Amino acid sequence: MTQVSWQFAHDACVGFRAHGHAGNAAAGENIVCAAVSALLQSLVLGLTQVLDIEKLALTSDEEQALLQVRLPQTLTNEQRSGAQVLMKTVRLALEDIAAQYPDEIQSNVEVMQS
C-alpha cells in the first residue's frame, strides 16, 4: 500500500511523505502506483521548475519506495501561494484515487507542531 502524509503547519501545507507500493503487481504494471508516481513527480517538477523553488528539501529512495518533500521557509509570496495550489491539487487527486482504491493508497493530513 502507498501511504501519503501531507504535513501542515500554520494552516499551510509544508511538505509530504509518500512511501510504499500500491498493490502487488510487478513494478511498472500497477496503474494506481503509476498514477501516484506521476502525480507526485509532477508536483516536484512544478515546485522546482515552474515556481523555481531552489532549496526544496527532497529525499528520494526508489528501493524503499520513498519520496519526501519539505518546502523551505524562505519563499516569496508568489512561490508560497503557487506551492499551496499545486500541493492541494495533487492532494485532492490522490484522495480521489484513494476513494476508488482504498486497499492500494491512503492519503492523510498530519499537523506539525511549531
User: What's the rounded overall pLDDT mean?
Assistant: 90
CATH class: Alpha Beta
> What oligomeric state is this?
single chain
Please give the order of strands in the largest beta sheet.
3-4-2-1-5
Q: What is the overall shape?
A: globular
**Radius of gyration over C-alpha positions, nearest whole angstrom:** 14 Å
Q: How can the largest sheet be summarized?
A: 5 strands, mixed
Task: Give the number of helices.
Answer: 2
CATH names the topology as Alpha-Beta Plaits
Low-confidence stretches are none
Strand residues, percent: 25-35%
Helix proportion: 25-40%
SS-derived structural category:
alpha+beta
Written as H for each helix and E for each strand, in order along the chain, the element string is EEHEEHE
How many domains, as an integer? 1
Task: Tell me the name of the CATH homologous superfamily.
Answer: Cysteine protease Prp
How far is the N terminus from the C terminus? 30 Å
Number of strands: 5
Descriptive overview:
It is a single chain. The protein has 114 residues and is an alpha+beta fold. The chain has one domain (2-111): Cysteine protease Prp (Alpha-Beta Plaits, 2-Layer Sandwich), CATH 3.30.70. Helices cover 39% and strands 29% of the residues. A five-stranded mixed β-sheet has the order 3-4-2-1-5, covered by helices on one side. Helix 1 (31-50) runs antiparallel to helix 2 (77-100). The protein is globular, with a radius of gyration of 14 Å. The termini are far apart. The model has no long low-confidence stretch (mean pLDDT 90).
